[in-house]
């Protein structure tokens, strides 16, 4: 978690929670739950409290009172309590030749029973699974993943788009979806939008709520997106990875055989350092790197048409050459890309003749070409 000022400690938070009492039972908020952690960033304090699922609604007024008291700490401008609930894992009888799951495992954030056969192949009807990743946030990874998926679908491929960025889901907004997926016979049905099938945790939770989950719950969510969603037969599944090189990335690579990874970066050196780490992670996990993309490669003035290299230019291409991986293309920094994402209309679909759409389409063609051995019947 983000490092907090020395004046704010775990015990300080606990004391505040212990001072908020339930008038009916006399128990404190701290006694009714478990303080899992907190984050203080730019004056905003978020506190995660684990409580029994059936008590969450009743504790909501106490959380509001606690939030007011937490705002009294120096440097805290706003405070929020997030209630989390871990589903207890039931005992699993080991079968011959199979190791029983470790105690304490089995977090399933969306509920539902565990898969009948944990050793069954994951996504057997998907020909190729590719990860769109970045070493750091803020480089346009989700925008790239969305437009890449739509552009692949425009080539006649059956495409799925999975938002694995649990802490910062955004694909539901970029796709313009407001409908929640439904479950049929215990299987979540992905939404059909822009010619592809898509699922994001942002479709299932209140987007105003911060996802303050521990690692096991994040891994559980990603596993359920892979095993409990009715994806059906697909040519390509595009996975929007969380930024960085952490547990979520490792969990996905261990669950499914990735056909390759696409690394998104901006041209400046500080972003390329993190992109280099991303390439190294996938290489260590024996996942082919399909190539690098240079996003925000240059700014094109809408009035005069002059190109300005705000973040430099060509850095990702040089880095790809140095790392001996393909360079998939560059995407300009355009207001239309930003606005199309905010409006929920991917630019490859809403403005197919634009420079931005053509850039994404060239990247999609290069990506499909690298996957042709898997996509050919």
Automatic annotation (TrEMBL):
Coiled coil: none annotated. It comes from the Bacteria. GO terms for molecular function: 4 iron, 4 sulfur cluster binding; ATP binding; ATP hydrolysis activity; ATP-dependent FeS chaperone activity; metal ion binding. Keywords: ATP-binding, Hydrolase, Iron, Iron-sulfur, Metal-binding, Nucleotide-binding. It holds the Pfam family ParA. PROSITE patterns: MRP. Transmembrane segments: none annotated. Residues 87-102 have a biased composition (Low complexity). CDD domains: Mrp_NBP35. InterPro entries: FSCA_dom_sf, Mrp-like_CS, Mrp/NBP35_ATP-bd, NUBPL-like, P-loop_NTPase, YlxH/NBP35. GO terms for biological process: iron-sulfur cluster assembly. Residues 87-118 are annotated as: Disordered. ATP binds at residues 135-142. Belongs to the Mrp/NBP35 ATP-binding proteins family. Homodimer. HAMAP family: Mrp_NBP35. Binds and transfers iron-sulfur (Fe-S) clusters to target apoproteins. Can hydrolyze ATP. This is Iron-sulfur cluster carrier protein. It comes from Acetobacter cibinongensis.
